[in-house]
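Bug report (template v2)

What were you trying to do?
Predict the complex of my protein with 2P0.

What happened?
Run completed; filing so the output is reviewed.

Input:
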Amino acid sequence: MTIRQVTCTAPVNIAVVKYWGKRDSDLILPTNSSLSVTLSQDDLHSRTTISIASQFTSDRMWLNGIECPIPTNQRLVNCLAGARQQRQDMESRNPRLPKWSTWGIHIASENNFPTAAGLASSASGYACLVFTLAQVLELPLTPSELSRYARLGSGSACRSIMGGFVGWEMGQRADGADSLAYQVAPETHWPDLEALILVVSDAKKGTSSTSGMQTTVNTSDLTQHRFANVVPERMRQMEAAIQAKDFPTFAELTMRDSNQFHATCLDTYPPIFYMNDTSRAVVNVITAINRLDAGIQAAYTFDAGPNAVIYAPKAHMPRLLLLMAYFFPGAASSADQTFEYFTNPYN
Ligand code: 2P0
């Protein structure tokens, strides 16, 4: 039996201008542009092996060692169909190419961190799936084209296709052709910036991002203000701060955006709570540190879960680690509030 097999890894990304809402749920087209930092491959990542063979009679998928039925996962079906169609088009144009589009596809994917706990597992997972599919089927796709496929799996996944600082342009077209990721700056751009991830809880989140964001779009007045009056200007300011490596501005925008995202969750009816008491204590500690004479030294951000990501210049990280251990001394022994520290150099 001839098997083609490829293994790839893809890192998570943590948004500093948050995506929260869709204008088209099938094509996964967002209601606002967003911007994130792709972490290093060495830290939180998904690892996917895809095998194709003419003898495979059906497509199959295993996530963290457990088989998941593909037909009930429409997003996975769409990603596989898109890649297969592209391969088929290539084979029709060039009959000498092997007919890999007719072969069955087996996918084995795992995360080296808790899945669905608000640590962007769907972002790294679908980015990895799409990238690996393109490799195994030899699809000649640019990173921008790959981001369009990844978006069909999970919106935030389109940003994990690229390293460094990555924007996702919401686009205007109904077919999504202009809703693509773009690199604001490469991973080598700002080596002095590091991320610290505080795993407050690795439990699966109560409200999934997919359903939570649509309830927010349907019920929150604040989020309509955010889409129209806040995000467009914030995207411009954030890109400029990144280009200039202006940490105080980057930090303030990051914290304001996290605050507003969670405010729109509270403004959702019924409300959604992702942050918990420990998350809020982290906000208080970082706010107190930033009030000291030295100015803004760190930025917190929280996604759809209680876990904190702290961005800070490298020189401040050792002190931040000590302060976190001082203010949360019981965390290491508590079952549901465990802090794990990853410092993350981007280069
Ligand atoms: C983000 N999040 O920009 C925001 C911030 C969570 C909070 O993208 O339905 O898992 O698969 O497109 O990408 C989470 O949403 O949702 C997310 P789908 P996704 O990173």
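What did the reviewer find?
The longest strand covers residues 3-11. The mean pLDDT is 92.
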